[in-house]
Amino acid sequence: MWPVREPARGKGGQDASKPVRKRARAVTESRTTARVVMLVTACVFINYVDRGNFATTETLITDELRLSATQLGVLLSAFYYGYVVCMPGMGWLAERYGARRVLAAGLTLWSIATLLTGFAGSFATLLGLRILLGIGESVTFPCVSKMLAQSVEVSRLGVANGVMSFGYLLGPAVGTLLGGYLMTVYGWRGVFMIFGSLSLLWLWPWSRVVIPSRPSGPATTAGEPSFAQILRQRALWGAALGHFASNYTYYFIISWLPYYLVKSRGFTLGSMVAIASWAYLLNALTAFAMGWVADHWIRAGRSATLVYKGLMATGHLSAIVCMLGMVMLPAAGSVAALFAFCVLGAVSYPGVFAIPQIIAGPGAQGRWVGVQNACGNVAGLLAPAITGVLVDQTGLFNVAFGLAAGVNMLGLIGWVFILPKIEPLQWSAQR
After folding, report:
1. Do residues 111 and 60 make contact, with C-beta atoms less than 8 angstroms apart?
2. Which pLDDT band holds residue 20 (cuts at 50, 70, 90)?
3. What pTM does this model have?
4. Whose CA is closest to 151, among 216, 101, 90?
5. Where are the alpha helices (DSSP H) in 329-377?
6. DSSP per residue, 89-110
7. CA nearest neighbour of 379 among 398, 409, 404, 342
8. Positive or negative CA dihedral for 148, 151, 153, 154?
9. For the segment 130-167, what is each residue's pLDDT rounded down to a tens digit?
10. Fold type of domain 34-206+225-424
11. In the chain, where the domains are located
12. Using one digit for the tens of pLDDT, what is the confidence trace for 47-67?
């Protein structure tokens, strides 16, 4: 047998190895948390690649299946039929059966729906698969937000959400670039088959991860509130309205930008892919950087309320100007306004989920984000479909861009005026 070494003793006979073990444990926990953040970032990246590849291929799909702009708008919105309706229930499932397990099941379902889209031959089939895709993806943000609130310290939530935002904003960039290339080689059907198959590979590392549990603030010590308590919170409805406004502009852009650049502005498919990919990449990089900046400001002594409300206001005010610029300026100016939106609008993205993670805490996170994200994604039901109808009726995008600009006023009202102070709720005091 190996000899047993007595623990080193410090002054007073104390075990000098305890600080070493404590530091080692902290390093291990930090690495585990980082791995969780990276894997959930990969998950939301896959989520947005799979939901966004339809927009990349929409010009070929509409030509082959002879779809009108109104039908295309319905298909773009159909994803949100299942996504919005199922999301509050998915938040409950995440808290009842575990976010890790529910997230894996959802990714499996949406990957299969993506793959099968490559075999669709009619409007009705595409409609059904888009709804199924939405049901599968509805698990994502309730599960991911709950796991981040559970495993990440409050002082690091900005960085964690910035990294996660980078993932879901990078998805459209990579999906557009890679999807555009694959589309020229294998056709639009091959894009869905390849992406759907590759998405399933995420399940292997996810099956091996351990989700740490770390209290992240006073809200975590008071137990789990009831659903009725959550629904009575003014902060929930302010965040929900702000989330809706953020999503309306974002979904309008990612759903119709390829079509707008090609059909309205006269860009080639290759130019469209390049412009959209760079715009989405700038969007992702800015969100990533602002997560770090928000945490830095808060640790420097600024209040979370001032930091996050300031960022949300900046994002919506800039979106108003940029939406109008995209449609009113000539082609070069329109592209410049798009890039400006992708930079300035993205400063608000880390706050969309960091705010409820701070306020609600891990015990209420799944249900809170389930409701908030469902309300926010009603924009996905409206923006693509309304835009399709407006384009069919007017032949132009002017009214659609004006509407997108106007909706951002709701974002200012929700995030700045309805949302109260951003601090952990004391749930026990409200029983």
Report:
1. no
2. low
3. 0.75
4. 216
5. 331-344, 349-360, 362-376
6. HHHHHHHHH-HHHHHHHHHHHH
7. 404
8. positive
9. 999 999 999 998 898 888 888 888 778 888 888 888 88
10. Growth Hormone; Chain: A; (1.20.1250)
11. 34-206+225-424
12. 988 887 887 788 888 888 888
